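tool_call predict_complex ligand=uridine-diphosphate-N-acetylglucosamine
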Amino acid sequence: MSATALILAAGEGTRMKSATPKVAHAILGEPLVRYVVDAARDAGCERIVVITGHSAEEVENLLEDVECVRQSDQLGTGHAVMCARDSLSGFEGSLLVLSGDTPLLQAETLAGLVAMRETSGAALTLLTTHLHDPSGYGRIVRDRDGAVEAIVEHKDLAPEQHELTEVNTGTYCFDAAVLFAHLDRLTTQNAQGEYYLTDMVQVFNDEGLLVTALPAEDPLETLGVNSRVQLAEAADVLQGRINTAHMLMGVTMISPGLVWIGPHVSLGRDVELLPMVFLFGNTSVADGAIIGPNSRLTDSAVGEDARVDSSVLVEATVGPGASVGPLAYLRPGAVLGAGAKAGMCVEIKTSRVGANSKVPHLSYIGDALIGEGVNVGAGTITCNYDGAAKHATVIEDGAFIGSDTMLVAPVRIGRGAVTGAGSAISRDVPAGALGIERAEQRTVEGWAATHRVARASEGIEANAGPSGARDETETSDTD
Ligand code: UD1
Ligand code: CA
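tool_result ok
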């Protein structure tokens, strides 16, 4: 099939009551309109054109890989199609016209619609459905033989037409050449003063051109999102669909209702997703990895058998068998090699941590290149920013960074070198050397007995441990 898709997404979506245009609202980390683009692509559409208008730039920025055409004044769905006339000139064949706010439409349904039009030779085949409460929708009027005679918009219904329950889903397959040859016949003589695309049914019927309809098997699939209530409804359905597909492919989720996975995420076999996990964007998780609880991964890759616990990853890469968290934050460009570790309260950005290297506790690693088998002690910080520019830290294979080392970049710690705990290292430490920067410790014999006893007699906490001890030069006791 080589249909082209035209997706109408220029409307504001007033019922969303939002500063964000309707089709930009996200479900599982992707804008609404993206689901429609994906369905069209999966249905075999080679070319996809999106009509933008309201907050056009914001919508276009979400669709960088898709062709967009502007409709500067939103004069109705028919007018939106008129705006695509130049872009689609010369195109012959099936043109799917879709709404940008129907994220539950499935590719198979669209392919079925195209197939039906092409086998029937109709000028238009439209997707309909039956609803218990059809209010708000355009109604399908059929003649005595069951042929589609017209679509009447809710606001234009005659009193007796309110009983009609078959509705227009806003999903159409046109013969493109026939559509554009007759599009100028649309007028704005209706309750809303708009060019209704739906009036093409009557135009074609007047010309003796065939119009057919495909009733959707599942009315839910055609849900149009007009309010935040419907946004949540659609999100629920998509979450269920996506999670079910992954579970059937060998992913464990103990509570699938507490796992949110975007449509472009790929998961291996025996991946385990614990509750409160969010996997968005182009995230991938390889076989046997365990994610969660409480983790959010966006555009990140996790290797086989890795473990991510209660952490946030954005554009990060975690090697096979590596371990992240609890409470780690891996920011863009963080790369952990095989078997590496980023532990409790560790933040890493634009840095590579080599295979089997460990950053287990309370560290910030930025703009660093860390070799293999390195141990980074608790509280270590790469001081990468001098207020104006970022600088690099290099730690070569097998180095040992003492706890609470400040690595003042640019700085290099050589192969197998060691830094002393509590040092501010601002000069390179050569391979195998010790770098230490620390005032020498003073030990005052008998200090505790004299000072603590004296204080106790003044009624000050006698049992204060070492942290209660004062420097012997300090004379104030007024606290
Ligand atoms: C439309 C149909 C109605 C159908 C319903 C299904 C018409 C006249 N009516 O009504 O029969 O039952 O969809 O959901 O087509 N848009 C533009 N430019 C415009 C106007 C709309 O791009 O000038 C876009 C909107 O962004 C939206 C889509 O077209 O994605 C549908 O528009 P909307 O205003 O929601 O139409 P409905 O009133 O729902
Ligand atoms: Ca120090």
